[in-house]
Design brief:
By secondary structure, the chain is of the alpha+beta class. The protein has helices spanning about 15-25, 70-80, 125-130; strands at about 5-10, 30, 35-40, 45-50, 55-65, 85-95, 95-105, 110-120. Helix content is about 20%, strand content about 40%. The radius of gyration is 15 Å and the shape is globular. About 30% of the residues are buried. The model is unreliable at about 130-155 (pLDDT under 50).
């Protein structure tokens, strides 16, 4: 079963955690200095917020799969529809290790399809190996923060 994913960039993490905790009537399942995530069952959603990004608002949407077969099904569907596909494979982002790929809708909204494999102690292992001024998450990035090979909203931070 898939779980809908929404990632929102926020300016004030503390205020946003307080707001969404009241809205969802639940505390986040994970909180870091720049990130929070709720794994809700009603509705079934992975809702994440972070201070990573250029401006407040929806960063990207996606589907989190429960297993590798569901992820492969989403990838096959995108390939059959001739969607531009950015395959990252196994990567780390948003304090998790995942297998993932991306597609972009006609308006330029990035859709992340991923299967979480485990947790990691940093936002991105790749980022922890880079300098702060050269940070990137999840995909090889073009100068403005977009994953290479697919048109993704500027400032997309993934996960």
């Amino acid at each position: 079963m898939k779980r809908f994913h929404v990632h929102v960039h926020v300016d004030d993490l503390g205020k946003s955690i307080a707001f969404y905790s009241k809205l969802f009537a639940a505390e986040p399942t994970r909180v870091e200095g720049d990130y929070a995530k709720w794994m809700l069952d009603d509705p079934r959603i992975n809702f994440a917020i972070s201070t990573r990004g250029e401006r407040a608002g929806v960063d990207h949407l996606g589907f989190q799969t429960d297993d590798a077969a569901e992820l492969a099904e989403l990838k096959a569907r995108a390939e059959a529809a001739d969607m531009a596909l950015l395959v990252e494979g196994e990567t780390t982002c948003c304090y998790a290790r995942s297998e993932k790929h991306w597609v972009t809708d006609p308006q330029g909204i990035a859709w992340e399809h991923f299967h979480t494999l485990g947790n990691v102690p940093v936002f991105s292992e790749r980022e922890s190996e880079q300098t702060a001024s050269d940070s990137a998450c999840c995909a090889p990035r073009a100068p403005r923060g977009k994953p290479l090979g697919i048109a993704v909203k500027s400032g997309s931070s993934c996960c």
